[in-house]
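Progress report, Aim 2. The chain analyzed during this reporting quarter is listed below.
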Amino acid sequence: MSRTPGKRPSNGTVRGVRQYLTQIARHIAPDRLELLDLTPDKADAYLRSRAADLGQKALDGQRLALQKYLVHVRGLLPEGRRIHAVHSLKPTCREGRAYAQHQVPMVAARQNARNALATLVAYAAGLRAHELLTLARPAERPPDVRPARPEKFDGRPGADYTVVGKGGLVRLVRIPDDLAARLEERRLDEAVRVTDREIRYLSRYDVGGGEAWSRSFSRASMNALGWSRGAHGVRHSYAQERMAELQRGLRYDDALEVV
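Predicted structure tokens for the chain:
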């Protein structure tokens, strides 16, 4: 996977690559192999050997980590060349990851005020856990310039905010007015630095977010529903509901582009 010349990878990307390489090193250690022993052919053979016991996301993550390692660290793979994708043979779990609309308030009711508000905001705006820590008004941190469909917020009135997403991209999100009012009540007098999963963020609101909120959500879900699909489940819920809304007037592919 190529990267823009002169642009440093984000801390999250570096951390993810390091974690995947550590997993690979541990797996090949019993065979008396190290990462230094891997060539493009051996990396391909390793990935094919894991197809039966790794899901597609894990396989793809390890493939991209090996690719970066072989290109940028070992110099054994020319930049622009890719390790062939391997399809997982592991059976997939067919149970959906999304929460039903009525279940999200039930989970929030089992959390403290700051985590409950975070849950409702994440569900209403489709936010990732770490993005909750980065909420800001557009005037104080404008979104990055990127192509966007005019239907992006159709049928979703509310107040606009920005968050820092994957790779450091600043994107525009919309929060319903009632939740935005509650959010502004928890605005800090001065922004503070917070650390989540070894990455530092500038936080302007006293709301939950990151790993601590994710743990709170999982506990609350178990208490309220007897099961948990993880905090990321609310983002899946947002995506599913938004797709259903948009497909009332758009084709599936167009709706997917908006979401």
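The longest helix spans residues 11-28. The two ends are 24 Å apart (CA to CA). These observations will guide the mutagenesis work planned for the next reporting period.
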